[in-house]
Amino acid sequence: MSVTEPSEWQKRIEGEWHGIPGLFDALGNHVGFESIARASEVTDEGARYWMDSKLSGSGPLRNRFELGAQFDFGVVDSDENRVYTGPDFYGTGQPYGLFVDAHYYSPGWQADLRTWNQVLADGETQVYSSVLHDGWAVCAVFNGVYKRTLDRETNPETQRFVDEWRELERQRGSRPQVLPTKEAGAWVGTLFVNGADQVSEGKVEVTIEHAPTSLRSARQRITWVGDLDRQYTLDRYRDGARTMFEGPEVYGNATSYGRALFTSQHLVGADATGVEKIKGREFLIDPETRELAVVWQLLRGDTTTHFVHGSLSWESR
What is the pTM of this model? Predict the structure, then answer.
């Protein structure tokens, strides 16, 4: 693709993005923050990605992830496979509409990363997470919410906005995901559907009915209506950063890294015929308004069939 014709994903991430992702250890404990400004730019030499980061915190992860330089690496810009050509990251990312699923390696961090970056429908907000691995074992997680600017270097008002946003995210970022424990309600909204071939397959109206059964448990009934139809009920139990799904139609577990819950669910109800699974990230963007950003990777057996993604709003009932 010519550098004068950026991909659709490249257009979506134009500008600088600012956040302060939280850093979590493998067990879900918050241990620091990383103040970030980043951009993916198309130049005469090709596409490049840079990240200006300042790490805070303590302990072994601070020692491991303190780079001492700005990340800067080449990108082959494409809506099929975005290829990261080094020297700071090597791998690929696949866009699915407003969401990209990236898998790459960082020589500086000595870690294999699975990064999910989701642009919300407003076009100005990104929900980000990177799960870092040593082989198959999780060693750390970064996650947070970014906002876009186009004139930070020259506009004092924009600079104040970035400072205020980062301070707000600092307050939110270390909070664990704890869903309402004494209030029934539902998350509702429209999610986008992309097939495994990355092509849009429409939308679904999703409702997650939530009924607490104790301070650490709840029953949820999830309904999809639209270009994909699903309905299933689950009982969930929280034990610290861990969540278990124990029937009647979903079994599995999850770990919370701050506001982001990473789930593995096996659907065993009649509609699923026992072969469907969901690997997901459910991100409580604002614990006060309870807006929930969702990415669900739907699998049949171990083969991905769809990505379902978007945000849901909370309604008390």
Answer: 0.93
